[in-house]
Write a structure and sequence with these properties.
Blueprint: H1 24-31, H2 57-66, H3 69-73, H4 92-109, H5 114-123, H6 132-142, H7 151-162, H8 176-186, H9 197-220, H10 226-229, H11 233-245, H12 251-280, H13 286-291, H14 300-318, H15 321-343, H16 350-359, H17 361-371, H18 374-385
Helix pairs in contact: 2-5, 4-5, 4-9, 4-12, 5-8, 5-9, 6-15, 6-17, 7-8, 8-9, 9-12, 9-14, 11-12, 15-17, 15-18, 16-17
Bound molecules: magnesium ion.
The site of magnesium ion has 5 residues, from helix 4.
Length: 389
């Protein structure tokens, strides 16, 4: 006779306690720091909903984002490099997942609410139009007389209005805390109170991720050489640390080891800074977090070195002739499409046409274009407008 799993004499028998479903509030109470955002303290949602028995409010936010159309479309949206350069580099989706990974590491180490950290990280770039910042600049110009276009603000419109998975309310009806986190990204200078630590962690993790992976992608595509990067103190120090452990590394192995070191170094630095500030400023509640200066910030020394790397990347990578020509082509395409749809609004899907009465045609066309993937924008441009321009 075949033994059934878990039925042997030595296996512990499941008790009622073991198979009891975890109550989210209890989990938060046991695991989270007092300065973390507890689910039970959430200010709820714009459209009140009954609480879920075993998923906390921020876990539900995370799930709603992962299941949204806007999130899936990130897989075919440019981060920095477009598909014609190759297939090694990050897309907007893989960047988002890397940010969530770094942010969760920081959030867990500080005993913050990981569900909220992850939900904010997965939502942080939802509002990017096709072709990355090139696409954003083009749409901003097209909408200059109608309030402009900003990817952080657009992410808010997506999750509060444009996504329509529910019959009862528009948008995803995310928690007030998640929306506030995204608002603080959209209007940094005007926010009177500091964002929650969970939101600060996502901002810092975004910077850790793009500083390292933009350099990695540029090396892979031979827009930069390792020797050029080694002119930067940040890169040199990371290489020195790697060499102490692995003297003989070369080529791709050395590059990856430096990248791992850079991420680990930045995360460790953020954690050390946060620990010191939490103690020095006696932060023991969310209210303290809101009143204090930013807590999740790199040390002065590392911040200066990161700025140097960012300026280097801006000069040498983001303005590389190969990228500039792609950027111009993408902007011309989006501008032609914007003018084309405005001239022939009957080409827009019916759901968008019906919104124009409330928000006007320019914003309606902008919303439609911003939702497109790179691939779909190219396809629709060729199908509808290529002959005309
Ligand atoms: Mg980002």
């Amino acid at each position: 006779m075949t033994a059934r799993p878990g039925n042997s004499a030595s296996a512990p028998r499941p008790t009622g306690e073991l198979i009891e479903l975890a109550a989210p509030q209890e989990r938060d109470r046991l695991l989270l720091a007092p300065f973390a955002m507890h689910g039970s303290a959430s200010r709820g949602r714009r459209y009140p909903e009954v609480e879920h028995p075993y998923r906390g409010p921020f876990q539900r936010d995370r799930d709603r984002i992962v299941h949204s159309a806007a999130y899936r479309r990130l897989s075919a949206k440019t981060q920095v490099f477009t598909g014609d350069l190759g297939d090694y580099h990050r897309t907007r989706l893989t960047h988002t997942i890397e940010v969530a990974s770094v942010a969760r590491t920081i959030g867990r180490a500080l005993r913050l609410n990981e569900d909220l950290v992850e939900a904010m990280a997965l939502a942080h770039d939802l509002g990017h139009p096709p072709f990355g910042h090139a696409g954003e600049d083009a749409l901003h110009r097209c909408l200059s007389k109608d309030g402009g276009f900003n990817h952080n603000r657009h992410a808010l419109r997506l999750v509060t209005e444009l996504e329509q998975p529910y019959r009862e309310f528009p948008g995803l009806n995310l928690s007030i805390e998640l929306l506030e986190g995204q608002e603080s990204r959209a209007a940094k200078a005007t926010t009177a109170e500091r964002p929650l630590l969970e939101a600060q962690v996502v901002d810092a993790a975004d910077s850790v991720a793009y500083d390292t992976h933009d350099a990695d992608d540029a090396l892979e595509h031979r827009l930069l050489t390792m020797d050029e990067l080694l002119e930067l103190p940040l890169w040199r120090e990371a290489e020195r640390r790697v060499r102490k452990r692995y003297q003989a590394l070369t080529g791709g192995h050395l590059r990856r080891a430096i990248l791992h070191e850079l991420i680990d170094w930045q995360v460790s630095d953020l954690l050390a800074q946060a620990q010191a500030r939490l103690v020095d400023w006696q932060i023991t509640s969310v209210a303290d977090v809101r009143r204090a200066p930013l807590i999740i910030e790199p040390s002065t020394e590392l911040a200066a070195q990161k700025i140097e790397l960012e300026q280097f990347l801006a000069q040498r990578v983001y303005r590389h002739p190969q990228l500039l020509s792609v950027r111009r082509a993408a902007q011309d395409m989006l501008s032609s499409m914007f003018a084309g749809y405005l001239a022939q609004p009957e080409l827009l899907p019916a759901t968008y046409q019906s919104r124009a009465a409330q928000i006007g045609w320019p914003r309606t066309v902008g919303d439609y274009l911003a939702g497109m993937t790179d691939r779909y924008a190219e396809q629709e441009y060729t199908r509808l407008f290529a002959q005309a321009s």
